[in-house]
């Protein structure tokens, strides 16, 4: 069968599972007064449509920041504005200032779900297809299999189409950035990644590898000649993109400061809820949240994040090729996840460890189905296309299934949080293991063949 | 390290496909379900709560039991498992009860019952001619498995609209597989069971009857394929008869003993219903209706007819009705039955002497002539498809879902021959599109479009690869017709609802869909008919079975 038909089948399967998951409940459905992320997105449409730009990030009479105030960069706000225009066309009640708070209806749900699907089809899915087509080794069958696995990845589907978010936009843009760099279009790649960064500040997790790769490449081309011009062009692209995105906020020095304040809420503390990172796990033994002052916490998290990120970044700087770049991305995001400030459990986008969140949203069925399907599919394809059958592969489904069973077990009365905490700690240990493993792989380069193939 | 016991490449892809489609079905649990959901819930309730003597008399709900007794027993068995999900669904007066547990149970029962279908598909794959050395995606058995397991019609009718067709078609396909494997007694038994599960399969009973009589009871043919009368085996006939009769006895026995047979039959064959279902199935009567409407409009316009004297042709509205036609003669149930019988009888296994006169002639001479050249299991399958399609084309109160009876067996033929693949593509795409009005909710719109594209792209690409030698499968006219479905869909579901006519003529998109698809279905029927007539020469030397 031809490639295009196989790829389109993958896309259609991915789209079908996405839309089928969207039939289910969303975050905060029917739960006044605060509802959930779904209501937050609707509220942002209301705010951006009805209020002038300089009020979006400020606490005013019309804009109560305590009720889902905007805490993503301006591109999210513009996206909400565009959606709001469409919403106004379909049904003005959806974005009525104040009156539309907590608005829930079947047609509104369809509209919101449709906006996610639209951006997914526009940004994320083409990026995945191009990535698999150009940057995966192996036969065309393996490329198609990879595309299928990526498109059916449960974490993204459940959060975007279930819980309700727009991660596909920022991830998609970041993926376009990676594609750009991989094809040698550095300017395009920087543009795409800057846009991703301006959509969700979480993309900072990936910013250091981008920076080090591009800088390393320019240095290699010679800082006196071509390299310098390249560096200048890239910096200009980034700066102009930032300026364009933040333009409405540059009129008054208070504006960007307020926006930054909303994006990085250092006031909220080291962590919230049960997150599988160092601070939450450490908190079980030593109550660092209460023990250390906020400044010390900030400093500690910054220092450790930097510590874990530095080796990988320096290695990438010295050897700027694609394979190093990919590994650095993994290491950087892991480091940020494990050690930075105010990390939310959604950041890891790993389905297994978001189980309590999803159960709360009423998404248990799609969670079980998509996770099992993904596990079986990827294991099946992996064993058939690579012709190996490491017993190690079976460790992961075992792990996921045992994590999932925690849902059904009753915790002892003395420690009602026992199981979520155990799951967090277990996950944390795994992530710690991963970051050490991937750092070692990147630093020691055991697979020389691959890196030679991928040098620019 | 390599695992000690590797997964055999031979069959694991089958289980992967089966598991994959089951996961998809689980994701659709929360989708829209039609009144058929309440129908089956009602049957669960009445078989569980009432004694057998009351089953066919119960009429609290408008959805009375209108399937044969074995299906009622099937629902009875299910009801015992339903107890563990939600006891309230088994209370008869709880009309339209649809708690989450009820929905979960009913959906899961369809998904689990599909295991029968999986097994049947596996058995059918064994009947195919395999080409060793082809890669997986080009293997006929792989293609057939996907065409059957991931069939668009089954997915949306069973797992969204809600029915048990997968289970029933599993029994049918298993019966066909058994005949292909020369295990005729099992095949006949399975078909009898099927008839007692859903009597709509009576439409293809003539194919079974003629095939078994001609090819099984007469154990041998002459060298040229014609009938050898001396080889008639009474033993086989008796055993077949016993199997069929005892199945019916087990099924209908209790009701005959209770003297309820007339009541049961009246429930099973309600001739009081109208010629067409609420939404016209894309068959001959859709074209007949539209012709009638056209003539009446033209007649009044050209003052050939007096509008006051015309009987009002009622075609609007969404209920099951009698159709009074304005200009053309109104069709009665008897007329349709006669048409159906004639169309079927003429299409049975090969005969070289077809003319218009034969079509109009009496039953017996036609029967006698078609006994001449049977073509074994392939011919039986072809005959079965034509019976199913013929009864769809001319049948009384045909539901558009009935087209599945023709498509699924045709898939078996499609992976075997080029011509059949072309006809299959035409028929499947057209009839799958004709199922669109079944899911009229906005939420299900993307699903039906994605799944339709999925199935269509796969069937086109895989069959094209399978038969890449010998030119295109579809001629330009057919391709144009199929492409015409895209603007049709855009107009009917996107453009038309935004126009002013939506309020005054709400039925127009349905009518357009039905008529457009009727053209495609009729075309496929004619081509199938012709291919049956013209393929006789290649089978003169075929050994019996």
UniProtKB/TrEMBL annotation, chain A:
Signal sequence coordinates: 1-22
Lineage, uppermost ranks: Eukaryota, Metazoa, Chordata, Craniata, Vertebrata
UniProt keyword list: Endoplasmic reticulum, Glycosyltransferase, Membrane, Signal, Transferase, Transmembrane, Transmembrane helix
Record GO terms (molecular function): dolichyl pyrophosphate Man9GlcNAc2 alpha-1,3-glucosyltransferase activity
Residue spans crossing the bilayer: 110-132, 144-161, 173-197, 227-249, 298-318, 325-344, 364-385, 392-409, 421-440
Protein location: Endoplasmic reticulum membrane
Protein name (Swiss-Prot/TrEMBL): Alpha-1,3-glucosyltransferase
Catalytic activity: an alpha-D-Man-(1->2)-alpha-D-Man-(1->2)-alpha-D-Man-(1->3)-[alpha-D-Man-(1->2)-alpha-D-Man-(1->3)-[alpha-D-Man-(1->2)-alpha-D-Man-(1->6)]-alpha-D-Man-(1->6)]-beta-D-Man-(1->4)-beta-D-GlcNAc-(1->4)-alpha-D-GlcNAc-diphospho-di-trans,poly-cis-dolichol + a di-trans,poly-cis-dolichyl beta-D-glucosyl phosphate = an alpha-D-Glc-(1->3)-alpha-D-Man-(1->2)-alpha-D-Man-(1->2)-alpha-D-Man-(1->3)-[alpha-D-Man-(1->2)-alpha-D-Man-(1->3)-[alpha-D-Man-(1->2)-alpha-D-Man-(1->6)]-alpha-D-Man-(1->6)]-beta-D-Man-(1->4)-beta-D-GlcNAc-(1->4)-alpha-D-GlcNAc-diphospho-di-trans,poly-cis-dolichol + a di-trans,poly-cis-dolichyl phosphate + H(+)
Membrane disposition: Multi-pass membrane protein
PANTHER family: DOLICHYL GLYCOSYLTRANSFERASE, DOLICHYL PYROPHOSPHATE MAN9GLCNAC2 ALPHA-1,3-GLUCOSYLTRANSFERASE
GO cellular component, one term: endoplasmic reticulum membrane
Family: Belongs to the ALG6/ALG8 glucosyltransferase family.
From TrEMBL, chain B:
GO BP field: protein N-linked glycosylation
Organism: Cyprinus carpio carpio
GO cellular component annotations of the record: endoplasmic reticulum membrane
Enzyme class: transferase
Annotated localization: Endoplasmic reticulum membrane
Pfam families in UniProt: Alg6_Alg8
Protein family: Belongs to the ALG6/ALG8 glucosyltransferase family.
Signal sequence residues: none
Protein name: Alpha-1,3-glucosyltransferase
Keyword Transmembrane assigned: yes
Recorded metabolic or biological pathway in which this protein acts: Protein modification; protein glycosylation
EC number: 2.4.1.-
InterPro entries: Glyco_trans_ALG6/ALG8
Keywords: Endoplasmic reticulum, Glycosyltransferase, Membrane, Transferase, Transmembrane, Transmembrane helix
Topological category with respect to the lipid bilayer: Multi-pass membrane protein
Example of a GO MF term: dolichyl pyrophosphate Glc1Man9GlcNAc2 alpha-1,3-glucosyltransferase activity
Entry superkingdom: Eukaryota
Membrane spanning residue stretches: 12-32, 136-156, 200-221, 233-258, 352-372, 379-396, 447-467, 479-501, 507-530
């Amino acid at each position: 069968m031809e490639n295009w038909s196989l790829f389109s089948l993958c896309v259609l399967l991915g789209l079908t599972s996405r839309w089928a998951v969207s039939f289910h409940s969303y975050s905060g459905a029917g739960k006044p007064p605060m509802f959930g992320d779904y209501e937050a997105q609707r509220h942002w449409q209301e705010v951006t449509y009805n209020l002038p730009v300089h009020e979006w990030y400020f606490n005013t009479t019309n804009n109560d920041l305590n009720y889902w105030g905007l805490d993503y960069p301006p591109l999210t706000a513009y996206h909400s504005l565009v959606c709001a225009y469409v919403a106004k066309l379909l049904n003005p009640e959806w974005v009525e200032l104040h009156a539309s708070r907590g608005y829930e209806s079947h047609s509104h749900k369809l509209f919101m779900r449709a906006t996610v699907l639209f951006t997914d089809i526009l940004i994320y899915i083409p990026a995945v297809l191009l990535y698999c087509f150009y940057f995966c080794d192996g036969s065309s069958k393996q490329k198609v299999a990879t595309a299928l696995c990526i498109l059916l990845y449960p974490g993204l589907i459940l959060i975007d189409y279930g819980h309700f978010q727009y991660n596909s936009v920022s991830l998609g843009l970041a993926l376009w950035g990676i594609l750009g760099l991989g094809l040698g279009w550095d300017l395009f790649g920087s543009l795409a990644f800057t846009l991703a960064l301006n959509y969700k500040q979480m993309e900072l997790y990936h910013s250091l590898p981008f920076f080090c790769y591009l800088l390393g490449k320019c240095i290699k081309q010679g800082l006196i000649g071509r390299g310098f011009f390249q560096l200048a062009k890239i910096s200009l692209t980034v700066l102009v993109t930032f300026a364009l995105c933040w333009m409405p906020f540059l009129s008054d020095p208070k504006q960007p400061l307020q926006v930054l304040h909303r994006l990085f809420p250092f006031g909220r503390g080291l962590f919230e809820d049960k997150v599988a990172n160092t601070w939450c796990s450490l908190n079980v033994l030593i109550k660092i949240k209460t023990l250390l002052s906020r400044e010390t916490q900030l400093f500690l998290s910054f220092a450790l994040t930097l510590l874990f990120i530095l080796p990988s970044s320096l290695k990438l700087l010295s050897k700027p090729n694609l394979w190093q770049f990919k590994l650095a991305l993994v290491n950087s995001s892991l480091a940020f996840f494990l050690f930075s400030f105010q990390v939310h459990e959604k950041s890891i986008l790993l389905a297994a460890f978001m189980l309590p969140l999803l159960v709360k949203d009423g998404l248990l069925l799609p969670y079980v189905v998509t996770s099992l399907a993904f596990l079986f599919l990827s294991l099946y394809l992996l064993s058939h296309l690579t012709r190996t059958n490491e017993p190690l592969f079976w460790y992961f489904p075992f792990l996921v299934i045992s994590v999932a069973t925690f849902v059904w077990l009753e915790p002892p009365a003395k420690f009602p949080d026992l199981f979520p905490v155990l799951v967090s700690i277990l996950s944390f240990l795994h992530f710690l293991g991963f970051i050490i493993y991937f750092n070692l792989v990147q630093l020691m380069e055991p697979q020389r063949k691959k890196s030679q193939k991928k040098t620019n | 390290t390599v695992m000690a016991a590797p997964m055999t490449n031979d069959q694991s892809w089958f289980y992967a496909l089966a598991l994959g489609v089951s996961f998809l079905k689980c994701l659709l649990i929360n989708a829209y379900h039609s009144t058929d959901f309440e129908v089956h819930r009602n049957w669960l309730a009445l078989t569980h709560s009432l004694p057998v003597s009351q089953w066919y008399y119960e009429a609290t709900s408008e959805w009375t039991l209108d399937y044969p007794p074995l299906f009622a027993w099937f629902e009875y068995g299910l009801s015992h498992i339903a107890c563990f999900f939600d006891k309230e669904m088994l209370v008869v007066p709880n009309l339209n009860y649809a708690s989450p547990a009820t929905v979960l149970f009913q959906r899961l029962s369809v998904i689990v019952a599909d295991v029968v279908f999986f097994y049947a598909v596996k058995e059918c794959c064994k009947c195919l001619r395999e080409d060793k050395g082809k890669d997986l995606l080009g293997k006929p058995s792989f293609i057939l498995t996907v065409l059957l397991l991931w069939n668009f019609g089954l997915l949306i009718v069973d797992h969204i609209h809600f029915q048990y067709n997968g289970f029933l078609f599993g029994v049918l396909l298993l019966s066909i597989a058994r005949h292909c494997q020369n295990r005729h007694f099992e095949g006949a038994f399975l078909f009898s069971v099927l008839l007692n599960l859903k009597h709509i399969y009576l439409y293809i009973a003539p194919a079974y009857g003629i095939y078994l009589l001609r090819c099984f009871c007469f154990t041998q043919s002459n060298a040229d394929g014609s009938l050898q009368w001396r080889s008639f085996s009474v033993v086989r006939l008796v055993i077949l008869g016993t199997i069929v009769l005892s199945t019916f006895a087990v099924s209908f026995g209790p009701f005959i003993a209770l003297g309820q047979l007339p009541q049961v039959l009246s429930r099973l064959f309600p001739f009081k219903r109208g010629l067409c279902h609420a939404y016209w199935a894309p068959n001959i009567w859709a074209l007949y209706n539209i012709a009638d409407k056209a003539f009446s409009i033209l007649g009044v316009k050209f003052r050939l007819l007096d509008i006051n004297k015309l009987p009002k042709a009622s075609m609007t509205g969404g209920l099951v009705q009698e159709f009074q036609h304005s200009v053309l003669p109104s069709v009665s149930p008897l007329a349709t039955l006669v048409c159906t019988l004639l169309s079927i009888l003429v299409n049975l296994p090969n005969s070289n002497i077809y003319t218009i006169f034969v079509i109009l002639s009496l039953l017996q001479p036609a029967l006698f002539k078609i006994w001449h050249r049977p073509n074994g299991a392939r011919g039986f399958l072809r005959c079965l498809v034509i019976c199913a399609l013929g009864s769809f084309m001319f049948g009384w109160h045909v539901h558009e879902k009935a087209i599945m009876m023709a498509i699924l067996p045709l898939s078996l033929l499609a992976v075997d021959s080029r011509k059949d693949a072309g006809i299959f593509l035409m028929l499947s795409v057209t009839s799958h599109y004709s199922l669109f009005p079944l899911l009229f909710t906005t939420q299900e719109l993307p699903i039906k479009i994605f799944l339709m594209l999925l199935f269509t792209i796969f069937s086109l690409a895989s069959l094209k690869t399978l038969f890449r030698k010998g030119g295109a499968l579809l001629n330009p006219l057919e391709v144009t017709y199929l492409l015409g479905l895209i603007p049709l869909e855009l107009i009917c579901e996107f453009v038309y609802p935004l126009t002013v006519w939506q309020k005054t003529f709400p039925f127009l998109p349905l009518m357009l869909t039905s008529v457009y698809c009727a053209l495609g279905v009729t075309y496929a029927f004619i081509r199938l008919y012709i291919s049956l007539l013209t393929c006789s020469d290649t089978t003169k030397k075929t050994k019996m079975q």
